[in-house]
Design goal:
The complex is a heterodimer of chains A (about 375) and B (about 325). With about 375 residues, chain A is of the alpha+beta class. Chain A folds into three domains: about 90 residues, Butyryl-Coa Dehydrogenase, subunit A, domain 1; about 120 residues, Butyryl-CoA Dehydrogenase, subunit A, domain 2 (Beta Barrel); about 130 residues, Up-down Bundle (Butyryl-CoA Dehydrogenase, subunit A, domain 3), CATH 1.20.140. Chain A has eleven helices and eight strands. In chain A, strands 1-4-5-8 form a four-stranded mixed beta sheet. A four-stranded antiparallel beta sheet of chain A has the order 2-3-7-6, with no helix packed on it. The longest helix of chain A has 29 residues. The two termini of chain A are about 40 Å apart. In chain B, about 60% of the residues lie in helices and about 10% in strands. Chain B has a four-stranded mixed beta sheet. In chain B, α2 crosses α3, α7 packs parallel to α9 and α7 packs antiparallel against α10. Classes of the chains: A alpha+beta (about 375), B alpha+beta (about 325). At the A-B interface, α7, α8, α9 and α11 of A face α7, β11, α8, α9 and α11 of B. Chain B: This is Acyl-CoA dehydrogenase. Chain B: It holds the Pfam family Acyl-CoA_dh_1. Chain B: Keywords: FAD, Flavoprotein, Oxidoreductase.
């Protein structure tokens, strides 16, 4: 057992660190969840892409560097340690792209991935519906067969990034007569500016339009934008949520960097006599380390041929609750300044509050942990 | 980078697990609590035969070299089985004497400890004043704040009752006893021994927590109320999911601490393994209902261990302070 990286990995780390030192904007970009900030973050994606840093784990033909999971984790460590901007292309890169690699045709990959890597096309997810949240398989938005494609109708909601994004992906009911809810669903991609699409931005808790409702009225989707076989959408989507919950949505690098900033804040402003607060700072430092090490163990298992399964539910519950605790600790350290909406920790705190809700609520994740990892009997939710 | 136990390391843990699984440890724990050390001594000899105690001593003294990772994986199994006795303290004495570099002392004590001929126990400055199971140990060592290593005088004084009856505490007599060594070398060796004791207690905690979780999962699957196994109810499931979560995120901290034995890493591992085990105990107690609150049920043997082990060789508070020291520059 060891935690030592090879010289090659360390060389990759050094290259990433040097590039980031030269390119990370000196002052933070405006919030990703504003029109101005969205545009600035899209430009940053282009800067990353120009030197092949926007999607390092992808094959080179799509703009990546073809690196393995270990190097991706190392890149993420360096990325967040450098204080680089949030990723406006996150939904596409971590949710849609893995699905394309597993289920799409070569033509689809060649058409969709390069503009995703450059930030030219930014993707939103379209899973939830007003009456279908945790019980996603009950969704009713439909796609009806038409000449050369499908016509989408219905309503999607809580669609992250959709206020300013270009395109979206999700699952739609193509066979309303299928015997079970998760059958007869189809995974497809559509243009948010197509005829028949109405996007109504929704203000997040801080008022910023971080997500949107989508009203769809006979929106035409060509056959070339269907991923996998019609009717297989549930299986394909579940492989995506697996990636989302697993190793690729929230890398440890992000939390290691945040915990480092918190420890620095404690040293600058903490009252040494306040041992209750001191203990929470220590917990944040330990939590980031635990998450990092858990991920290295997972990456090692993956390299040895194991697959991420229900363990990704442990991961999701851990980071989402950790993230809130970390930010709450920072706010407590700030005292009266914690209330200032433009403070360094305020927006990340607001963002953290959504973690236990999206990507499968933590209640659903705990059910999965209990049933699939502990073998407890299924019951009513 | 391969952050997983090797096949050999996993096999060693499995061997211990199967040995202890069929060794009627609960009966030995109950006997130990009554002052009958016979079955516990018997277990010690069987463990020695696996080479467990050799992992805390150099080859020159019949050991296998100081191998904290293998030893930690072994101590997880001791925790899982609920093994009684000063197991951590004996290993810590072994480490202290290995690190001290005094050949005569090493020769005098180490081969016997490696062979499992006797238990040893220990108190260190800044730690608990109580020696664990001194009445069952052949050697009771103490290190004073002034850096004197002494072999406490025979006769342990009054045995103080612990909240875990299988832990028998006493205050080693401060005066008298043979002076074995003194000076800065003792302080250094004592620091190493303290770090190992903390690491191995963390390992034991992880095993205790896993045993409590496994027993409770088994119970909620078979206990039926309202016409369904109580394990099908969400309130029950979620407590158990949280128990697993805490244990699974503590385990890699233990591995990393065993790899480096750095103070910050060891403190982080102890903090999380100790807290996870204690939370597992509280969940086990609640989900077993009233029968879990009885001493008759063997569950009590692990329930009562979880709290003292959480605090032994580094309370959560002491460990948090150590973690912050380790990330403070300068």
């Amino acid at each position: 057992m060891d935690l030592t990286q090879t010289a090659e990995v360390e060389a990759f780390r050094a290259e990433a660190r040097a590039w980031l030192a030269d390119h990370v904007p000196a002052s933070p970009l405006p919030s990703l969840e504003t029109r101005e900030g969205f545009a600035a973050h899209r430009e940053w994606e282009a800067v990353l892409h120009a030197d092949r840093w926007s999607a390092v784990s992808w094959p080179e033909e799509y703009g990546g560097r073809g690196v393995d999971l270990v190097k991706w984790l190392v890149f993420e460590e360096e990325y967040w340690a450098a204080g680089a901007p949030g990723r406006v292309s996150q939904n596409g890169i971590s949710l849609l792209a893995p699905t394309l690699f597993d289920h799409a045709t070569a033509e689809q990959r060649a058409r969709v991935l390069p503009p995703m890597a450059s930030g030219e096309v930014v993707w939103a997810q379209a899973w939830s519906e007003p009456e279908s949240g945790s019980d996603l398989a009950s969704l009713t938005s439909r796609a009806v067969r038409t000449e050369g494609g499908w016509l989408l109708s219905g309503q999607k909601t809580w669609s992250s990034r959709a206020a300013f994004a270009d395109r979206a992906f999700g699952i739609f009911r193509t066979d309303p007569d299928a015997p079970k809810p998760h059958q007869g669903l189809t995974y497809l991609m559509f243009d948010l500016r197509a005829a028949g699409v109405t996007v109504r931005p929704i203000g997040r808790l801080d008022g910023k339009p971080a997500f949107a409702e989508l009203f769809l009225d006979e929106v035409f989707v060509p056959d070339e934008d269907v991923i996998g076989e019609p009717g297989q959408g549930w299986r394909i989507a579940m492989s995506t949520t697996g990636s989302e919950r697993g190793l690729t949505l929230r890398s440890p690098g992000r939390f290691l960097a945040a915990a480092g900033r918190l420890a620095a804040l404690w040293r600058e402003q903490g009252d040494p006599a306040d041992t209750a607060l001191r203990d929470r700072v220590a917990d944040a430092v330990v939590g980031a380390r635990a998450y990092e090490l858990f991920t290295w163990a997972g990456a090692s298992r993956f390299a040895a041929g194991g697959a991420a399964g229900a363990e990704s539910s442990l991961n999701k519950v851990f980071w989402s609750e950790y993230d809130i605790a970390l930010h709450e600790t920072a706010l407590d350290l700030l005292g009266a300044d914690a209330e200032l909406a433009d403070g360094e920790w305020a927006e990340p705190w607001i963002f953290s509050l959504a973690g236990p809700i999206y990507a499968g609520t933590n209640e659903i994740q705990r059910d999965i942990i209990a049933e699939r990892l502990l073998g407890l009997p299924k019951g009513r939710r | 980078m391969r952050f997983l136990p090797t096949d050999e390391q996993s096999d060693f843990a499995r061997t211990l697990r199967s040995l202890l699984g069929s060794a009627q440890v609960p009966a030995a724990v109950r006997a130990w609590a009554d002052g009958d050390h016979g079955p516990g001594h018997e277990l010690r000899s069987r463990l020695a035969a696996t080479g467990l105690f050799a992992l805390a001593a150099p080859e020159a003294y019949e050991g296998a070299g100081l191998l904290p990772l293998e030893l930690s994986l072994g101590f997880v199994e001791l925790g899982r089985a609920g093994m009684p006795g000063p197991v951590v303290e004996s290993a810590a004495v072994s480490v202290l004497l290995s690190e001290l570099g005094d050949e005569a002392l090493a020769k005098r004590f180490l081969p016997g400890l490696v062979a499992g001929e006797a238990w040893a126990t220990l108190t260190l400055p800044g730690g608990s004043p109580y020696a664990l199971d001194a009445d069952a140990a052949a050697h009771c060592l103490t290190v004073s704040a002034a850096g004197e290593l002494r072999l406490a005088a025979p006769g342990t004084g009054e045995v103080l009752r612990s909240t875990d009856p299988a832990r028998r505490l006493s205050r080693p007599s401060a005066a008298g006893g043979e002076l074995l060594a003194a000076g800065p070398a003792v302080a250094r060796a004592a620091a190493a021994a303290g770090r190992w004791a903390r690491l191995l207690t963390a390992a034991q905690c992880l095993g205790v927590g896993e045993a409590l979780l496994a027993r409770t999962v088994g119970y909620v699957k078979q206990r039926t109320q309202f016409g369904a196994p109580i394990g099908s109810f969400q309130a029950v499931k979620h407590r158990l999911a949280d128990t697993l979560l805490a244990l699974e995120f503590a385990r890699p901290l233990l591995w990393a601490a065993a790899l480096s034995t750095a103070p910050g890493d060891v403190a982080a591992a102890k903090l999380r393994c100790g807290e996870a085990a204690y939370r597992a105990a509280m969940t086990a107690l609640q989900l077993h209902g009233a029968v879990g609150y009885t001493e008759e049920l063997d569950l009590s043997l692990w329930l009562r261990k979880a709290r003292p082990l959480r605090d032994a060789w580094g309370t959560p508070s002491a460990c948090r302070a150590e973690v912050l020291r380790s990330v403070t520059p300068g």
